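Retry 2 of 3 after timeout on previous attempt. Resubmitting structure tokens to design endpoint.
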């Protein structure tokens, strides 16, 4: 698998490399599945490597896969890790940056109710993240907004709650980053130059909001009335900021 990666990565950025053993009816040996981000890179690799002994004596047969998985209306978006890998390769490590506009705890706002007679189970921790990706050399800014959640069990173990909080936050940030990159189009030319365009067809209603409006999407603190034993007249003195 490392040999395959080394041989084919010189033609372009690889999405994944997998090596598998042949089926019993095909005899001893292995075959590999190499996925490129660019179809052009894959075609160049096939033409250059087919019939060559890349890392072994016997020549390899290399062909472009024609069987494609059928997707529904829209192809799945790249994960945040893959988006960063792609951006670093074509734009450079200093060619883009990201910043979190807001990361809010929105747990408990879905109105879920526990059914009587069932064991008490805390609802999952939920965090809402608004994030902005900037490409300074191209004058492009793109936003992503996403929700991440993680199960905290019965909510009694502080360590479990802390770990669930970190998972939910990390998931929300990653999904928001992927959402922001989904609106950015990288046009890779044959000479290696890269043009960047903003895909306005992927815009969401939150893209038109100001940062202050984004930060104010959720500003509510949960209070347990039983814990504080507050009377109605005391509650009337509380503001949203409190």
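Retry 2 succeeded. Sequence:
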């Amino acid at each position: 698998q490392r040999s395959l990666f080394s041989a084919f990565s010189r033609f372009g950025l690889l999405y994944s490399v997998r090596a598998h053993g042949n089926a019993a009816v095909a005899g001893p040996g292995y075959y590999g599945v190499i996925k490129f981000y660019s179809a052009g890179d894959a075609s160049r690799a096939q033409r250059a490597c087919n019939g060559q002994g890349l890392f072994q004596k016997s020549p390899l047969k290399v062909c472009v896969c024609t069987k494609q998985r059928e997707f529904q209306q829209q192809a799945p978006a790249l994960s945040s890790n893959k988006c960063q890998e792609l951006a670093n390769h074509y734009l450079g490590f200093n060619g883009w940056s990201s910043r979190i506009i807001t990361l809010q705890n929105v747990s408990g706002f879905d109105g879920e109710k526990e059914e009587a007679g069932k064991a008490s189970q805390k609802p999952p921790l939920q965090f809402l993240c608004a994030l902005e990706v900037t490409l300074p050399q191209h004058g492009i800014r793109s936003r992503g907004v996403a929700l991440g959640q993680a199960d905290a069990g019965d909510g009694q173990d502080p360590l479990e709650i802390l770990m669930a909080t970190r998972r939910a936050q990390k998931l929300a940030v990653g999904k928001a980053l992927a959402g922001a990159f989904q609106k950015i189009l990288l046009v890779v030319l044959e000479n290696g130059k890269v043009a960047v365009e903003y895909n306005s067809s992927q815009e969401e209603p939150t893209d038109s909001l100001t940062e202050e409006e984004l930060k104010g999407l959720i500003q509510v603190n949960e209070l347990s009335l039983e814990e504080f034993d507050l009377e109605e007249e005391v509650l009337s003195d509380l503001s949203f900021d409190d």
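Attempt log closed. Strands lie at 14-21, 30-36, 97-105, 125-135, 140-150, 184-188, 194-198.
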